[in-house]
Structure formats: structure tokens, C-alpha cells
Amino acid sequence: MSRQSNRSTDSKKMNSELFTLTYGALVTQLCKDYENDEEVNKQLDKMGYNIGVRLIEDFLARSSVGRCHDFRETADVIAKVAFKMYLGITPSVTNWSPAGDEFSLILESNPLVDFVELPDNHSTLIYSNLLCGVLRGALEMVQMAVDVRFAQDTLRGDNVTEIRMKFIKRIEENLPAGDE
Amino acid sequence: MADEALFQFLHNEVIQYVNTTESGETENGRCVSKLENMGFRVGQGLIERFTKDTARFKDELDVMKFICKDFWTCVFKKQIDNLRTNHQGIYVLQDNKFRLLTQLSAGKQYLENAPKYLAFTCGLVRGALSNLGVKSIVTAEVSVMPACKFQVMIQKM
């Protein structure tokens, strides 16, 4: 009976470990299936994109965030609301380009890599590339084309993880032909 | 503190991915066993971290109860609704509203896809049990979604 007390400790944490480990199993599987890291990176990005286009609905429905007026506001919402909500971290937004169309998200810690070490033969693997896909997919659904990539990664020995985001253009809504 | 929706989306993508890579005549069996193997690894990792501060289990039944209550609650936010056993190494875990099926439960349209959505969890349970020293075979069956039954057959060593 003594066990009962210290069980059910923090289910939140457990759930995040479920996600982290499942993601790890996926990357492992991809590394087995594909010849080189490039292919794996591409596949992760693609899967992230698929998640992103769906996740945005969940996000808008639950966060009740309104329309963003500029890219700076978008950056803040991503960092302070979206990352907080889904990964429980709040990256800082820095390194704005003078034109205000490019910024970095600095992640002090990255939940995806909690139990991860990269073996030497996977030096070009971008382990967390799923995140880039998610961001790209989600923003595309709100008419924003962006370029997302990892600039630094703690897994490769950098001090922090840095995601670089560049605004490309607004996507005009294309009505289907003949649909006024 | 990963959000639950994120896990569900990831789970869907994993299934989608495995499904496309394993398309061919034997696709279903290969697909299910690949997913099961991924679940196995995850189950092993989870249970190890989860039981590090718990006391030793009394017996097999105690282990199963732990899976039904604590493990299930943490992973799927609810307990198993019904646990049955024949006391000879077979356990049936019934979940009346299984989290990973609720999204495709309206109507019978997706019933044939259900095994793919259960394979990962079968592996999860098998992996967890295996690291607690219980060797088993876990299979799942669905008749009316989102209810499903997981059958655990203990392999005597």
C-alpha cells in the first residue's frame, strides 16, 4: 500500500516523456529506413508539416489568439503561447534582421532531445527537424510562407538551440476557379 | 509538459508513415509489427522512468493492476475500465473509450483501420511488462469503437 502514495506523481511529466520517447522511436525508425541523414531530415520536416497544418486549428481554437498585425507579433505568439502550450517551454525571440522579416527562437532546453545523444555516424542529422515542419505548416495555414531551419543545436555541441525563421511572403487566398 | 494533442498528431503521422513505407501485398501485418516494435521501445523507456521510486511488486497480478491504473492514467488520462483474468496467464484489459480511437469512431467507416491505431499501444504494454520481468504477447481487438480490448498472454519462462 505504501506504493500508492508515491505513484501517480506527475502525470504531466510522464506524458511529456511519452512524447519524447515516441519521437525518438520514430527518428530511430527513419534512420533505419533511409540511407542518409538528408533523407531523414526531409522526412521529419514533411511529417512536421502535416502535423502543423492540423495543429494550427487546435491552437486557434484553444488559445483564442486573434489575428496578428505584424511579424513581430507572430513571433511573440509562437514563442510565448504556442511553445508554452505544446512543449512547456518559452523560447526567447532575438536577432531580428534590420528589415524585421527574420528572427531567431532561442531554446534554452529542448524537450525533444531529453534522452538523446547523436552517434558519430549521424553528424548531419537534424534531430528536431520536425519542429521546423510544424512551424512552417502551421503558419502556412494562416497565409504566411516562412522559411524555418535550425541554426544551432545543442545536440551538435552548441550552447543553445536556435531556430531561425524568415518571412517569405503573404499567401494570397486563391479561390477555386469559378467560385466567386 | 508536451500537450496531449501533440502526441496524438505525432501518433497519427507515425502510422501514416509506416503505412506508406510498407505498402505491398503483406502490408498490414508488416505495418502492425513495425508499429508494435516502436511501441515496445517506448514502453520499456517509460516504465523504467516511471517505476524508479516504487516498491517491488508482489506478483503478476499486482503488476497488471499497476499497468491498468497508474500506467494507463499517465499515458491515456484514464484507467482501464475492466480487467479480467483466467488466473492462468491470460489477462484482458478493456478500455471503453480508448483515447487513440475516439477521433475515428463515428460510424464503422474506419473499423478496418483500427488495428493500426492499436499496434503501438500493444507494443507499449508489452515493452512495459517486459522491463518488469514479465514476458508476454499482447494483442488487441475492437468490435465497437472506441471500445477495445487488449489481451495479454503471459509467456512462462
Automatic annotation (TrEMBL), chain A:
Keyword field: Endoplasmic reticulum, ER-Golgi transport, Golgi apparatus, Lipoprotein, Palmitate, Transport
Keyword presence, Iron: no
One GO cellular component, as annotated: Golgi apparatus
Superkingdom classification of source: Eukaryota
Gene3D superfamilies hit by this protein: Trafficking protein particle complex subunit 3 (3.30.1380.20)
Record-level GO BP terms: Golgi vesicle transport
Subcellular location field: Endoplasmic reticulum; Golgi apparatus, cis-Golgi network
InterPro entries linked to this entry: Bet3, NO_sig/Golgi_transp_ligand-bd, TRAPP_component
Keyword Ribosomal protein belongs to the record: no
Predominant place of localization: endoplasmic reticulum
Assembly mode: Homodimer.
Family: Belongs to the TRAPP small subunits family. BET3 subfamily.
Function: May play a role in vesicular transport from endoplasmic reticulum to Golgi.
Protein name as catalogued: Trafficking protein particle complex subunit
Species of provenance: Electrophorus voltai
Automatic annotation (TrEMBL), chain B:
GTP-binding found in the keyword field: no
Entry keywords, A to Z: Endoplasmic reticulum, Golgi apparatus, Neurogenesis
InterPro entries named in the record: NO_sig/Golgi_transp_ligand-bd, TRAPP_component, TRAPPC6/Trs33
Domain of life: Eukaryota
Major localization listed first in the record, in broad terms: endoplasmic reticulum
BP GO annotations: endoplasmic reticulum to Golgi vesicle-mediated transport; nervous system development
A cellular-component GO term for this protein: cis-Golgi network
UniProt subcellular location: Endoplasmic reticulum; Golgi apparatus, cis-Golgi network
Short name of one Pfam family: TRAPP
Family membership: Belongs to the TRAPP small subunits family. BET3 subfamily.
Main function: Component of a transport protein particle (TRAPP) complex that may function in specific stages of inter-organelle traffic. Specifically involved in the early development of neural circuitry, likely by controlling the frequency and amplitude of intracellular calcium transients implicated in the regulation of neuron differentiation and survival.
PANTHER family reported in the protein's UniProt record: TRAFFICKING PROTEIN PARTICLE COMPLEX SUBUNIT 6B
Descriptive protein name: Trafficking protein particle complex subunit 6B
